[in-house]
């Protein structure tokens, strides 16, 4: 028998969350961001939920091709653009829209002599200091791109560094100044800007993590007023129980010590399944629908939970690691990370079902 752990993907939740994005940004078109295999969900699994999106944005060329092979006719955007000549050829063949963040990428497009001009998203480095043309160099880059025979429409794009923390005007103002008078569609907003910065919505928004029901800030409380639904649940079962006497310890490094006699449960889920090893004792988890906490270290294949509030729990009891009841953001926060990382880190060995 396989281990009882498995992940459920809920395309209905993604579809619902996409509607929430639409309500938040009613005047913008929506790039549904599905990079990293749809934030660990599996592009194929959530693809049916994306039909109302205006475009699909991702990073890997093979994912872009998969999306086309699934039948997607609307735009597909490569968020980091192309890396070599073969990529440019593939972008041409599959009608992909590509980000262009440097002159080298523009040259790759020109050298490919595409059959149809390739639509591009010309990226500005407005302060993130990862990819893009600096504001001072942007207008010239736009002129070169617009004059290029291989290039179709040129859209204007940038990415925010701290849209989840408050002010983004420092970047937005740079972008607006440097692009004043330049024609073309604008795209700036990630999930955080979709939720919290209407001024930045512009022509196309690019939500990722909110489509999967998690918080762009990493804090569940920040999205308490947004009716998002979790699109991934990770569940397993109790496979053993122990009764500890006061003073006994649990697991590696004996990091948890029972203060009194108590019952604990052993859950078939560990860091090799994608559960964060850094989750400290006290991380929320539910057993048979009752909220409780982990105790002791996360090991490769198992974690241990306090069964004090769950007196009926026994071998076979259902456990939710994250999902509808236990928020992925809360597990992530306890573990000093963000929901994004937990979704993307779901391990291959975990069986996935679509529900
Ligand atoms: C990942 C990504 C997004 C989506 O970010 P979220 O925070 O998940 O909404 C948007 N734009 C770019 C360029 C990205 O790389």
Automatic annotation (TrEMBL):
Catalytic activity: L-alanine = D-alanine
CDD domains: PLPDE_III_AR_proteobact
Keyword Protein biosynthesis: no
Residue sites binding substrate per the record: 130, 300
Residues annotated with N6-(pyridoxal phosphate)lysine modification: 35
SUPFAM superfamilies xref list: Alanine racemase C-terminal domain-like, PLP-binding barrel
InterPro entries: Ala_racemase, Ala_racemase/Decarboxylase_C, Ala_racemase_C, Ala_racemase_N, Ala_racemase_pyridoxalP-BS, PLP-binding_barrel
Assigned EC number: 5.1.1.1
Cofactor: pyridoxal 5'-phosphate
Location of the active site: 35 (proton acceptor), 252 (proton acceptor)
Domain Alanine racemase C-terminal, residue spans: 231-355
Keywords from the UniProt entry: Isomerase, Pyridoxal phosphate
SMART domains named among the record's database cross-references: Ala_racemase_C
Pathway info: Amino-acid biosynthesis; D-alanine biosynthesis; D-alanine from L-alanine: step 1/1
Top-rank taxon: Bacteria
Claim: Isomerase is one of the keywords in the record: yes
Gene3D superfamilies linked: Alanine racemase, Lyase, Ornithine Decarboxylase, Chain A, domain 1
Record-linked Pfam families: Ala_racemase_C, Ala_racemase_N
Family: Belongs to the alanine racemase family.
Protein function: Catalyzes the interconversion of L-alanine and D-alanine. May also act on other amino acids.
HAMAP family, A to Z: Ala_racemase
Family annotation (PANTHER family): ALANINE RACEMASE, ALANINE RACEMASE, CATABOLIC-RELATED
Descriptive protein name: Alanine racemase
Organism: Paraburkholderia terrae
Classification lineage: Bacteria, Pseudomonadati, Pseudomonadota, Betaproteobacteria, Burkholderiales
């Amino acid at each position: 028998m396989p281990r009882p752990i498995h992940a459920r993907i809920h395309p209905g939740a993604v579809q619902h969350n996409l509607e929430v994005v639409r309500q938040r940004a009613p005047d913008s078109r929506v790039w549904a961001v599905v990079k990293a295999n749809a934030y660990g969900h599996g592009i194929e699994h959530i693809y049916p939920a994306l039909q109302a999106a205006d475009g699909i944005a991702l990073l890997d060329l093979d994912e872009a091709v998969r999306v086309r092979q699934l039948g997607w006719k609307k735009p597909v955007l490569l968020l980091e653009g192309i890396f070599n000549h073969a990529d440019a050829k593939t972008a041409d063949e599959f009608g992909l829209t590509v980000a262009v963040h440097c002159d080298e990428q523009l040259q790759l497009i020109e050298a490919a002599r595409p059959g149809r001009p390739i639509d591009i998203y010309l990226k500005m480095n407005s302060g993130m200091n990862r990819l893009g043309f600096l504001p001072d160099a942007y207008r010239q880059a736009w002129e070169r791109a617009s004059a290029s025979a291989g290039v179709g429409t040129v859209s204007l794009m940038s990415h925010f560094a701290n849209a989840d923390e408050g002010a983004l005007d420092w970047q937005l103002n740079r972008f607006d100044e440097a692009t004043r008078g330049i024609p073309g569609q604008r795209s700036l907003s990630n999930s955080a800007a979709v939720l919290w910065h209407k001024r930045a919505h512009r022509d196309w928004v690019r939500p990722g993590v909110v489509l999967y029901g998690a918080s762009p800030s990493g804090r569940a409380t920040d999205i308490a007023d947004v009716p998002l639904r979790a699109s991934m649940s990770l569940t397993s079962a109790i496979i053993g129980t122990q009764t500890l006497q006061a003073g006994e310890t649990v697991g590696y490094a004996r990091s948890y010590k029972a203060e009194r006699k108590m019952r604990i449960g052993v859950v078939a889920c560990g860091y090799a399944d994608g559960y964060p090893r850094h989750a400290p004792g006290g991380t929320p988890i539910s057993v048979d629908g009752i909220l409780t906490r982990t105790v002791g270290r996360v090991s490769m294949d198992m974690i241990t939970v306090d069964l004090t509030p769950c007196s009926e729990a026994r071998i076979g009891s259902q456990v939710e690691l994250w999902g509808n009841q236990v928020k992925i953001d809360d597990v992530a926060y306890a573990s000093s990370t963000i929901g994004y990382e937990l979704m993307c880190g779901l391990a291959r060995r975990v069986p996935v079902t679509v529900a």
